[in-house]
Amino acid sequence: MGLTIAALLLVINQLFNLRTFGIVLMDGRYLNILATIFLAATYLIFDIRGHRFEKVSLIDWALAALAIASGSYLAVNAMENLNQGWEFAAPQTAQWVAFVFAALVLEATRRAGGLVLACIVTVVAFYPSFASHVPAPFSGFQSTLSQTFAYHVYSSESIFGIPMKAFGGVVIGFIIFGAVLQHTGGGSFFNDLALGLVGRYRGGAAKVSIFGSGFMGSMSGSVISNVLTTGAVSIPAMKRTGFSANTAAATEACASTGGVLMPPVMGATAFIMASFLAIPYTEVVLAAIIPSALFYFALFAQIDAYAARRGLRGLERDEVPRLRDTLRNGWPYVLVFGLLIFMMVVMRQETAAPFYSVALLLVINQISRRTRIGFRKFCDILLGIGSSLAELTAIILGVGLVVGSFSATGLAGTLVNELLFIAGDNVFILLVMGAFTAFIFGMGMTATACYIFLAIVLAPALEAGGLNRLSVHLFILYWGMVSYITPPVALGAYAAATLAKCSPMRAGFEAMRLGSIIYLVPFLFVLNPSLIGHAPALEVFLAVSCAFIGVGMICMGLQGYVTFVGTLAGRFELPLRAMLVFGGFLFAMPAMPFAGIGFGITALLGAALAAVPILVARQRGHVLPAVEAAE
């Protein structure tokens, strides 16, 4: 906890330029100190098996002390490093310190990020020392082992490169904001808000999961923690109201995955994206609104059709809090979010916004006797913040080694050329290759690590293919998240399956079906920037309208129920459902520029295809009222 307090004071002093005791730190030294504090904290929080908050052993204390000693050397000599170019010609002592610090980073990455990520990072970190012996197209400029690790530790392109700069500048404030919001009752408020909004509608328990997990995921930025937090309440409620265990687990997994893509917070990755693109974070947020809305609309539509087809009702009246009471008790959270969005969008103070929002939240919290935080609760909040920041720092420092290796060897440019050569002039093939690559890396890495790696390797190739830069980076982010709901890994679905007490693999395949639009949406917006708002208003309106209608058709076809019309059943059910899905896909096609048969023709063809199953469903009827909760 002491390390967390020290780090928070350092961050506030630096970001607000307070000049406490006349101290003004250059950026390099600031990042050195910040990384050192959280690197040491990682060894005190995560034991050798990667378990959190276990008994701290003598080895852990020794490694934490070594992290502080080696990191202090970097901070003290930051000016000499800058003036003398240690990344290319470090003195002997500095070289040994670089080896020690890099080794500590690799072990911290293993503890906080897992063995798979640590293995990938380790191999790539050593890559510059044998780069010339690797077959083309993966060969690159070779360095000695000491030159390699001096570059990793002392340059501004590796451990202390863009990811760490983003963390020390913007990310850290939003991590603190999310942690404080959850510990002060934000999670309960958003869950009650979701219950009040949609709890009594058909399939209400699942719809509550969608809204609640969307709110929570946007704050936490972690799929797994989101599943375990909101799923503990939502999954039993879904099962109790008639959802199968597999569907309950899949719904929670999909909703939690989408939460990380949901503005305004979007987890740490979006801030790093803004740093890579050198644009304000608000531009990333605004661009992500339509794609994330499409994903949640699709999930909501599928759940609604699923509940209607099976006659599932909403929650009991006494299980649903009154919306008026929820808003009256939770107005501080609305006010805090209003301040956050105002400072980010209107005042453009992205770095300061989360700190002012936290200050307002704590002040309001102390005024209210019902939610007032005591000393013990405050200590728990600090521990939670320290744990989250240490985990993220360890992963970011480790992934920084990957960035440094590509920078040192020039491999990124080589891979870009090779990808463009393989794809030829076909941008769609390049996108499919990129999606598959992102999916594979997403299996073994966190969303942040996966994004950083692919932003270096893959994004330049897609940009060279003539695609919009921001849409390319969002495309990579989306496809890196797909692995959370796609077997054989599907970590989000597997975590939800443990709560639902069902087969993890079946939950994973059901999550694929419910979240199927997440596979389509990235292709929609990367091929037509209108869907991220980068077009005239009329084009945006037309593209968004086509996309939403088409996605709605696809969802109804997947579930076999046409909303407000009736059920698709009987002998020709499967062909009719296929027609509705394909018709919906064609209707969304006008939002994609490679629809070679002309703008609008695909929409007409899609509408014609969809009309047949809709007419059949209308004849069959069997429409369940949207609100039919058990009385």
Quaternary state reads single chain
Mean pLDDT: 84
Shape: globular
- Strand content of the residues, in percent? under 5%
Helix content: over 70%
Q: Which strands sit side by side, in order, in the main sheet? A: 1-2
Tally of helical runs? 29
Distance between the termini: 50 Å
Number of domains: 3
Give unreliable regions as ranges.
Answer: 591-596
Largest sheet: 2 strands, antiparallel
Q: In total, how many beta strands?
A: 2
Radius of gyration: 25 Å
Derived from helix and strand composition plus strand pairing, the structural class reads: mainly alpha
Would you give an account of this structure?
This protein is mainly α and 631 residues long. The chain folds into 3 domains: 25-155, no CATH class; 186-390 and 410-533, no CATH class; 535-624, no CATH class. Helix content is 73%, strand content 1%. It contains 29 helices and 2 strands. The protein has helices at 2-15, 27-45, 58-76, 78-84, 86-89, 92-113, 115-126, 145-154, 162-183, 186-198, 204-220, 223-240, 245-259, 267-277, 281-310, 323-346, 353-367, 375-409, 411-423, 427-444, 447-457, 459-464, 469-481, 491-500, 504-514, 517-527, 537-559, 573-588, 601-620; strands at residues 561-562, 566-567. The chain has a two-stranded antiparallel ribbon. A hairpin with a 3-residue loop joins strand 1 (561-562) and strand 2 (566-567). The longest helix has 35 residues, at 375-409. It is globular, with a radius of gyration of 25 Å.
